[in-house]
Amino acid sequence: MGVGLSSELGDESLAERTRVALSNDIVRLRADDEAVVEVVLPNQALADYGMEVSGPALASCTRLRRLDVSYNAITAAGVKHLVQGLMASPSRLEVLRLSGNNIGLDGCRALCDYLMEAVQSSDAGASQLKELYLFNCGLTDECALLLANALRLNKQLTILDV
């Protein structure tokens, strides 16, 4: 069984803990550390910058199965960086937790593109996402329609928390 990555509470400031945790995670993702199957960084104020620097690291990782970046002040711009990394990655991410980030319509569009990739691509490494958590993400009625359309064709996703 693999090791999960997360930051630990200590005497450091939130910004310093976040920087250290993110740096460590990125190094291990880029190195395709075989023990890294889960990255858990909720409530770390990663914001869009965290996704901008993490996206390229995800492209190197082949074993990541679970990613939790919930409640990190991530917007649509950050989700786009995240999705770019996931689309370039041979990893078969199964669980993505984005709850509590105000991703809105544009972020939802990017996620739907990722969900549709599995349908449109003959690549065996395409999206294997089974669980997607989007509670409290600023989704609109249009987002619900986009997700419904994506899920009509993508049968991999079995849990959608909105």
SSE arrangement:
Layout: E1 3-5, H1 14-30, E2 36-40, H2 47-58, E3 66-68, H3 76-88, E4 95-97, H4 104-120, E5 131-133, H5 141-153, E6 159-161
Parallel strand pairs: 1-2, 2-3, 3-4, 4-5, 5-6
Helix pairs in contact: 1-2, 2-3, 3-4, 4-5
Average pLDDT score: 85
- Overall body shape: globular
Q: Strand order of the main beta sheet, please?
A: 1-2-3-4-5-6
Radius of gyration in whole Å, from Cα? 15 Å
Strand percentage lies at 5-15%
Output the number of helix runs. Answer: 5
Q: By helix and strand content, what is the structural category?
A: alpha/beta
Count of individual beta strands? 6
Question: Helicity level, as a percent range?
Answer: 40-55%
- Kindly report how far apart the N and C termini lie: 30 Å
* Low-pLDDT windows of residues: 1-11
The SSE string, one letter per element, is: EHEHEHEHEHE
* Largest sheet report: 6 strands, parallel
From the structure above, extract its key features.
single chain; 162 residues; alpha/beta; six-stranded parallel beta sheet; 5 helices; 6 strands; disordered N terminus
What would your notes on this structure say?
The protein is of the alpha/beta class and 162 residues long. The protein has 5 helices and 6 strands. The chain has helices spanning 14-30, 47-58, 76-88, 104-120, 141-153, and strands at 3-5, 36-40, 66-68, 95-97, 131-133, 159-161. It starts with a strand and ends with a strand. Residues 1-11 have low confidence and may be disordered.
